[in-house]
Amino acid sequence: MTTTARALLTLFVLSAGAAAFVHDGDPKLLHKRPAFQGAGWRNAQRQSTSGGPLLVTGPTAPFTANNVTLLSWVTLAEFGVSAAGNGNSCFGYTSPSGREYALMGLSTGTAVVEITQPGNPVIVAQVPGPVSLWRDVRTYSTYAYAVSEGGGGIQVIDLANVD
């Protein structure tokens, strides 16, 4: 077999492997766990009785953790995502004013959540997108870029006036 034939065979094998990536309805999704169905949790609800600083307590649902403290939990239902949907990516953004945001990739689009007070997150915007198993979000300057395998190209979200 010539070097060119080997290279073409290798390229073919790699291309066939690339086609084996998971897609909606694929049996490889058997490892996907359903979303936890429970109430959200905010540490802001756990104020001290003396009016002092917040007490860092835990939610009633157990979560395994190692060297992290859960300060809040926003459920998929709060984003308007059905039990069949999912959340799949999260990226941070700090606005020019210094406020902090989490950009959450959902099966139905991208959500912007203010987390300046991490014990009391606030959903400030939702940008619908193509329904998709995966959505990835990244930022550059004052823009967020969201992509998915669901089609529609790249969504560019202007965060300049997110405050």
Kindly describe this structure:
It is a single chain. Helix content is 10%, strand content 29%. The chain has a four-stranded antiparallel β-sheet with strand order 3-4-5-6, with no helix packed on it. Strands 7-8-9 form a three-stranded antiparallel β-sheet, with no helix packed on it. The protein is mainly beta and 163 residues long. Residues 3-21 have low confidence and may be disordered. Strand 8 and strand 9 form a beta hairpin. It is built from one helix and nine strands, in the order αβββββββββ.
For the sheet with most strands, the description reads: 4 strands, antiparallel
Number of strands: 9
What Rg do the Cα atoms give?
Answer: 20 Å
What is the quaternary state of this protein? single chain
Q: What overall form do the CA principal axes indicate?
A: globular
User: Biggest sheet, strands in spatial order?
Assistant: 3-4-5-6
Q: What is the averaged pLDDT score?
A: 78
Order of helices and strands: HEEEEEEEEE
Which percent bin holds the helix content?
under 10%
End-to-end Cα distance? 63 Å
Q: Bin the strand percentage.
A: 25-35%
Uncertain spans: 3-21
Helix count?
1
Decide which structural class fits the backbone: mainly beta
